[in-house]
Amino acid sequence: MTPRDVLELMKQHNVEMVDFRIVDVPGRQHHVTIPAVEVDEDMLTNGIAFDGSSIQGFRGIEDSDMVMRPVLETAFVDPFMAAPTLAVSCNVFEPNGTRFERDPRYIAEKAEAYLASSGIATTAYFGPELEFFIFDDVRFESSNRGAFYAVDSEEAMWNTGNGEKNLGYQVKNKGGYFPVPPIDTQQDIRTEMVKELMNAGIRVERHHHEVATAGQAEINFRFNTLTRTADTVMTYKYIIRNVARKYGKTVTFMPKPVFGDNGSGMHVHQSLFDGDTPLFFEQDRYGNMSDIALHYIAGILHHAPAILAFSNPSTNSYKRLVPGYEAPVNLVFSKGNRSAAVRVPVAVVSPKTARIEFRTPDCTANPYLAFAAMLMAGIDGIRRKLDPTALGYGPINKNIYELSADEKAKIRSVPGSLEESLQALEADYEFLLEGGVFTKDFIHAWIDFKRTNEVAPMHLRPHPYEFQLYYDL
């Protein structure tokens, strides 16, 4: 789109406000709103100034002047504002016109540029599957005198005996995959989410209830190039949350908000193309995977502990990554096996659908950073011709959770905590620096931010369950 196209779009929809949006380093959106009468071609080209010191992970107050410039093809009419509003994502620039190195969107774009310059492929396609919970109520507190959390859902199994009138259609633990109404009470809300996603220009493929009780859901959208897919993830989260709010409900993308049932992941499908030629397909090989695909898989699995610092970047992430809940904790690849960290989908009907699926990530990831880290790991595997079988990553075609103790002992696992992933990133980040995609400054700042703001505070606080374990000792 051109600035003139956007102005025409504003006229067609009688837009009164334009919402400029950026993404901070952890992965949250921020916005500033400009009256439409003040928006012209110059503003749509050169952007607007803002205070970078107020954005997590950006700048200190002593050097805070920054500029956000709209990425015009991301524009959509926001359905949740009372006044007709056009929302548009932005890139972040220095006042002198250069790109800001810590802008997550810039890192994603640099990863794509590095792939194109490598001669390996021209395009990387990403297709994440986001899972989430739709709750009726959430309450939490953390103070010096106490801490608690509580979630609730009319669908939850724990509500079979509650209320003045109970119809008994609650979802059983691990019984939420594909039930029809009346057990699935969220068909209509998911359908409205889909309609709003489509209105925003997102191509939706399906929606359904997920495995866990208490309102777990999944809505899948069409794959796209790396940065545009990350843009879609941000718009997706925004729309999902706001449709839920219209219904008096609340959505969380936390990996493990419910104890004792399945958590929520973000399985990421990935493939490489050279122009229109798919590079991951070779007939009659394992999973119809080419050598390039196998090298890519090896790169993902070899660097997975470090990747998880970006793809599973919350302390809650590692409450999901435990055996027994379909969680892909094992660093192996497999054809059609969902207990492996990397799955090769077997329902490949054409060379263009050949892809790999990295199942470990979750939705607390900043998608720009996580997708970039995955691509850089895959490129490293291709450049070094890493062999996943020679490195001990499979393939394994059995249910890994049912292997013998001796067989399991040979399989490496993902890190068990955010701190372990951060340590892995400290020890293995050179592959991310290729082509200037990530910088040492950014990686060290990310590690420091996570340790200071998330890992250390969690270690300092008493846990409610500790009172059950130790209060009477």
Short description:
By secondary structure, the protein is α+β, with helices and mostly antiparallel strands. 32% of the residues lie in helices and 22% in strands.
Which descriptors apply to this entry?
473 residues, alpha+beta, Ubiquitin-like (UB roll), Creatine Kinase, Chain A, domain 2, 2 domains, ten-stranded mixed sheet, six-stranded mixed sheet, 14 helices, 32% helix, globular
What does this molecule look like?
The chain is built from 14 helices and 18 strands. With 473 residues, the chain is an alpha+beta fold. β1 and β2 form a beta hairpin. α3 (104-118) runs parallel beside α9, α7 (304-311) packs across α11 and α11 packs antiparallel against α13. The mean pLDDT is 95.
Strand content: 15-25%
The count of β-strands is 18
Specify the structural class.
alpha+beta
Report on the biggest sheet. 10 strands, mixed
Describe the secondary-structure layout.
Elements: H1 3-12, E1 17-23, E2 29-35, H2 41-46, E3 48-51, E4 65-70, E5 76-78, E6 85-93, H3 104-118, E7 123-135, E8 137-142, E9 147-152, H4 187-199, E10 204-209, E11 216-221, E12 224-225, H5 226-246, E13 250-252, E14 266-274, E15 277-278, H6 291-302, H7 304-311, H8 317-320, E16 330-335, E17 340-344, E18 356-358, H9 367-383, H10 405-409, H11 418-427, H12 430-433, H13 440-460, H14 464-470
Parallel strand pairs: 1-6, 16-17
Antiparallel strand pairs: 1-2, 3-4, 4-6, 5-6, 7-11, 7-12, 7-13, 7-14, 8-9, 10-11, 14-15, 14-18, 17-18
Helix pairs in contact: 3-5, 3-9, 4-5, 5-9, 6-9, 7-9, 7-11, 11-13
Organism: Alicyclobacillus hesperidum
EC number: 6.3.1.2
Subunit structure: Oligomer of 12 subunits arranged in the form of two hexagons.
